[in-house]
Amino acid sequence: MFELAFIAVLVAGAVYVFMTLRKNGFFVTVEPSVTTSPKNLDKPLTVYYKYHLGPYQNVMNVIGEAKQLLASSPTPATFFGIYYDNPEVTDSHFLQSAVGVVFGSDGNDFHSEKYSKDLTDNGFEKLVLPNVERAVQVTQPSTGGFASFLALVWFTYSTIRKYISENKLETTYAVEFYTNTEINVIFPLDNANEFLVKDYQSIDKLESEAAKKRFDSSEEDSESEPEGAEEPATEENEQ
């Protein structure tokens, strides 16, 4: 009797873990497609964003800040990220993104002016993203937590990139939208350059600036080195 109860507990635990992972995007077959009415981008969007330079996993801090600022809004918030580089080919120090919150659509705001001020006061900048008439799109289940982002990186993106390669599509930037139930990933096939924020820089410029900083730093270090001390006196010198 005890063994049966123990087995039942193990089975229940396994089912719970499976269902939890499934809600986060694991064990789910996602199906990319080309659409002429991409979700979230079928109309112009008003967003507030922060430019981010560095590893993509660190953008979670910006999203967390935006969530905190919108926490008391009566309207559920949708957050977003524009990712300009492929982390498989670009050094993590040079990965660029723009991350924040969707504030309105087609000229209609979802949140009151108070939240607009709060975002601006905390360093977020306003931007209107264009509508997209053609894009690669895929939707993954999500609970809004870290596990969902792991599923996105480990599984969903490999499926998307395989689809893009097999269909010989020319894509540039990835745009992601986050809610408490799903992550929607879109690769615009038109108007892509209109998703560039003013802070965006070419990889060549970023690498050039990084090299200059390293050079300046090495120059400062060499200038700060103490000059050689005088040779110690020897018996021959003293004579």
Explained architecture:
The chain is α+β, with helices and mostly antiparallel strands and 239 residues long. The chain has a single domain, classed as Regulatory factor, effector binding domain (Multidrug-efflux Transporter 1 Regulator Bmrr, Chain A, Alpha-Beta Barrel), CATH 3.20.80.10. Helix content is 37%, strand content 23%. The protein has helices at 2-23, 60-69, 113-121, 146-166, 203-224, 235-238; strands at 33-35, 45-53, 78-83, 96-105, 108-109, 125-129, 135-141, 174-178, 182-188. The chain is globular and about 70 Å long. Mean pLDDT is 84; it is low at 15-23.
Essential attributes:
239 residues, alpha+beta, Multidrug-efflux Transporter 1 Regulator Bmrr, Chain A, 9-stranded antiparallel beta sheet, 37% helix, Reg_factor_effector_dom_sf
CATH architecture: Alpha-Beta Barrel
**Principal-axis shape:** globular
Rg is 25 Å
Helix content: 25-40%
Q: What is the name of the CATH topology? A: Multidrug-efflux Transporter 1 Regulator Bmrr, Chain A
Q: Main beta sheet, described?
A: 9 strands, antiparallel
The CATH homologous superfamily is named Regulatory factor, effector binding domain
Under CATH at level 1, the class stands as: Alpha Beta
Mean pLDDT: 84
Give the ordered list of helices and strands.
HEEHEEEHEEHEEHH
Instruction: Give the strand content.
Output: 15-25%
Count of discrete structural domains: 1
- The total of beta strands comes to 9
Region (Disordered): 211-239
InterPro entries: GyrI-like, Reg_factor_effector_dom_sf
Domain GyrI-like small molecule binding: 43-189
GO biological process, one term: reticulophagy
